[in-house]
Automatic annotation (TrEMBL):
One of its GO terms (cellular component) is plasma membrane. This is Permease. The lineage of its organism: Bacteria, Bacillati, Bacillota, Clostridia, Eubacteriales. It is found in: Cell membrane. Keywords: Cell membrane, Membrane, Transmembrane, Transmembrane helix. It comes from Fumia xinanensis. InterPro entries: DUF318 (IPR005524), UPF0718_permease (IPR053166). Belongs to the UPF0718 family. The chain crosses the membrane at residues 46-68, 80-102, 108-129, 150-169, 215-233, 245-262, 274-298, 310-336.
Length: 337
């Protein structure tokens, strides 16, 4: 058992967390005459290390997930979802959301396609909530920063929000709140040719390049913000605003995430820096969920597909779910960190 723990700690710290890379960069910067214990040196070390780590993990994860995703094109996904009914349909939709695009702006076109194809509205919303919030990439990235307990719980609770949210929307019978051009649309069944291994790898690599180009600016911005928080913002200020002393920290963090647009890769370095400075775990994770699920650009895009009433209900369900999850993580932080 001890050997297993040592092996797991090595995998988490040196493979996922790339501790060796952090030490290597510190050694190189120190050899160049830059003190990495100073604010400037620490910021540069944080920026270089986190950028390389996230982009490497990003490439590997997208390659693996896109290869899996090649087995689930929209038409096949629609057929899979069509076989299930009731809450099982919501569960399958939420699970399928974990192997689809990394941000809500990419998920919304798929949501529109599924809705046009006649799938139940609640099922399509379970997919829409799950897709940006709890993809497989978030599991691995969170594991590299916060450990497996936090990562698994984050994904499980994200799936619960997706299933509960979709089920509530289904029970409210809000089909008339979908824009008419979508309700009257008809998806055309296009035969899916069977791809070979080489074709799937080519598709996966194309997704790596395409996604990396899209998210790289947000990663750089996120790492830059993280470096500032990590080395320049006083710890007392973070603790005062986002620590134990502020019972509304989760609410503030959720609201703060809405105006931003990023995915899990851009929010990880900010979350990492906030946690290191004394922010509560639930506050940090609520911020991440708020950014990935409720970003303003995504809501503007979704408004083109649904009417204000349904959009408001969607935002309310996600917001309440995120806040509840945040307070839950705050309550059990001492057990899992």
């Amino acid at each position: 058992m001890g050997a297993l723990k040592i092996g797991w700690d090595f995998f988490q710290n040196e493979v996922l967390g790339m501790g060796w890379l952090s030490r290597l960069i510190s050694t190189i910067l120190n050899a160049c005459g830059l003190d990495t214990t100073s604010r400037v040196g620490g910021s540069i070390q944080f920026f270089i290390y986190d950028t390389i780590k996230i982009m490497v993990l990003l490439g590997v994860l997208i390659l693996i997930i896109s290869y899996i995703q090649s087995y689930f094109p929209p038409e096949r996904t629609k057929k899979i979802l069509g076989r299930f009914h009731g809450i099982w349909a919501n569960i399958i939709a939420a699970l399928l959301g974990t192997v689809t695009p990394f941000c809500s702006c990419s998920s919304i076109p798929l949501f529109i396609g599924f809705t046009s194809a006649g799938l139940p509205l609640g099922v399509t919303f379970s997919f829409l909530i799950s897709s940006p919030m709890v993809d497989l990439g978030s599991l691995v990235l969170l594991m590299s920063i916060f450990g497996w307990k936090v990562a698994v719980l984050y994904v499980v609770l994200g799936l619960v929000i997706a299933v509960v949210g979709g089920t509530l929307i289904e029970k409210l019978h809000l089909e008339n709140q979908v824009e008419e051009y979508i309700r009257n649309g008809h998806a055309i069944d296009v035969p899916q040719e069977e791809l070979h291994f080489k074709d799937r790898m080519k598709y996966a690599w194309e997704q790596v390049v395409s996604t990396a180009k899209k998210v790289a600016p947000y990663v750089l911005i996120g790492v830059g913000i993280g470096a500032i928080i990590h080395n320049w913002i006083p710890e007392d200020l973070i603790v005062k605003v986002l620590g134990d002393n502020n019972p509304f920290g989760v609410v503030l963090a959720t609201i703060a995430g809405v105006p931003m647009y990023a995915d899990i890769f851009g929010t990880i370095p900010i979350a990492e820096a906030l946690l290191a400075k004394g922010a509560l775990l639930g506050v940090v994770l609520s911020f991440m969920m708020g950014v990935t699920t409720l970003s303003l650009p995504s809501m503007i895009m979704l408004r083109k597909a649904v009417k204000p009433k349904l959009l408001g209900i969607f935002i309310a369900i996600c917001t309440v779910g995120i806040i509840v999850v945040g307070y839950f993580f705050n309550a059990i932080q001492y057990l899992i960190v």
